[in-house]
Write a structure and sequence with these properties.
Elements: H1 2-22, H2 24-48, H3 50-56, H4 58-74, E1 78-83, E2 95-99, H5 105-133, H6 148-164, H7 170-173, H8 176-189, H9 196-221, H10 232-266
Antiparallel strand pairs: 1-2
Length: about 270
C-alpha cells in the first residue's frame, strides 16, 4: 500500500511539473503583459487622444479580430458578424459574433481557443516580423544542454538579451526596418491582450481544457522510462516565447512609465 501511494504521489508530482514547465511561465508572463499593456493603452489615449491611438494601432486590432474569426472556422463555429476594424462610441474597435452547438465537445472546447487566439497570433506575428525585419542574430537558437531547466534558462536568456541589445546597436537604430519593427510590435503587442468578452468566452471550455492537460501530463509522467524529460524542441519553443513575452512586458512597462511621466510634466 505504501509503495502504491508513493507511486501515485510521484506521478502526481511529475504531472504538475510538466504542467508548470510547459504552461505556468507563459501564463504568468501573459497575465502580467495583459495588465501592463492595458495601462499602456490608457496612457496613450490620455496623452495623444483616443482617436489617434486607435488608428495608429489599427493593424493590431485587425489581427486580433482575424485570429478570432480563423479559429471560429477551425472549430466549426458559425460566424454571424465579422468586423475587422470599426471604432465605436462604446469603445469597440472590431468584433466577431459567432454561434456554436452547445452539445458539441469540439465546438465548446473551441470557445477557449477562440477567446485566446489573439495571444497566439500576436506573438507569432511578432516572431515573424522579428525574423523578417531584424538581423538574424537578434533571435538566436543556441546549442542547448541536455538538462530541461538548464536548456530553458539558456534559450530564455539568449532570446531576452539579444533583443535588448537592439537598443545599443547604432547600426540597427539607424535602419528604417528597426523603426517599422518597433511600430509593429507596439501596434500588435498593445492589442494582443484579451477583452472581457474574450475572457468570458473561454469559461465554458476552461474546465474541459484543464482536464485534457492534466490527462496529458499524467500520460507523459506514466511513460515507463527513467528520467522522463521534455523534448529539447519543446523546451526551446517555450523558453523563446517566454523570453519574447518578458521582453514585451519590459518594453511596455518602460513605455508606460515614460508616458506617465510625460503626461504629468505636460499637465
Amino acid at each position: 500500500m505504501a509503495e502504491f501511494c508513493e507511486g501515485v504521489g510521484r506521478i502526481g508530482l511529475l504531472a504538475l511539473l510538466y504542467l508548470a514547465v510547459g504552461i505556468f511561465p507563459l501564463l504568468l508572463i501573459g497575465v502580467a503583459l495583459q495588465f501592463v499593456s492595458g495601462r499602456f493603452r490608457v496612457c496613450c489615449a490620455k496623452l495623444f487622444g483616443t482617436r489617434l491611438y486607435v488608428w495608429l494601432t489599427a493593424p493590431g486590432v485587425m489581427l486580433h479580430e482575424f485570429s478570432h474569426a480563423l479559429l471560429c472556422v477551425v472549430f466549426h463555429h458559425e460566424i454571424t458578424e465579422f468586423v475587422l476594424f470599426s471604432p465605436q462610441k462604446n469603445g469597440n474597435l472590431g468584433w466577431v459574433s459567432h454561434k456554436w452547438d452547445k452539445n458539441s465537445f469540439w465546438q465548446n472546447l473551441g470557445c477557449f481557443f477562440i477567446g485566446i487566439a489573439p495571444l497566439f497570433f500576436g506573438v507569432a506575428a511578432i516572431v515573424f516580423l522579428t525574423l523578417l525585419l531584424l538581423p538574424t542574430e537578434f533571435l538566436t537558437f543556441p546549442d542547448l544542454p541536455e538538462s530541461g531547466l538548464a536548456a530553458f534558462k539558456t534559450q530564455f536568456r539568449s532570446t531576452f538579451i539579444t533583443l535588448c541589445r537592439v537598443w545599443v546597436e547604432t547600426q540597427i537604430l539607424s535602419d528604417w526596418k528597426f523603426w517599422l519593427w518597433l511600430y509593429a510590435v507596439i501596434a500588435i503587442g498593445s492589442q494582443i491582450t484579451l477583452s472581457r468578452t474574450d475572457l468570458s468566452g473561454t469559461k465554458s471550455a476552461a474546465a474541459a481544457l484543464i482536464g485534457l492537460l492534466l490527462l496529458l501530463a499524467i500520460a507523459v509522467a506514466l511513460l515507463p522510462i527513467d528520467g522522463v524529460c521534455l523534448p529539447l524542441i519543446a523546451i526551446r519553443c517555450s523558453a523563446m516565447l517566454c523570453g519574447l513575452l518578458f521582453y514585451l512586458l519590459l518594453l511596455f512597462g518602460v513605455l508606460t512609465l515614460l508616458l506617465t511621466v510625460a503626461a504629468k510634466e505636460w499637465s
